[in-house]
Amino acid sequence: MDKESKIVKLKSDEKCSICTCGKSKNLPYCDNEHKKLNEEKGTSYKSLKIIPKSDVELKLYCSNWDSESS
User: Fold this and answer.
1) Main-chain dihedrals φ then ψ at residue 55, nearest 5 degrees
2) Pick from 4, 35, 44, 51: CA 20 to 30 A from residue 23's CA?
3) Of 41, 50, 58, 51, which Cα lies nearest the Cα of 19?
């Protein structure tokens, strides 16, 4: 697995918010740091919401995730 990819195990019907801005202190999960970033930089980041229909394991990657942040 490459450094930037993250494995997450999700439970059926439980909502999960994934970071897209790369500023979360709990990657790959969103901690709402995008709101501060959007205000400071005029960007429009939002978290990616996932609600799986069954238990699943996903390998996730975002080009904004810095390997030093994880």
Assistant:
1) -60, 140
2) 51
3) 50
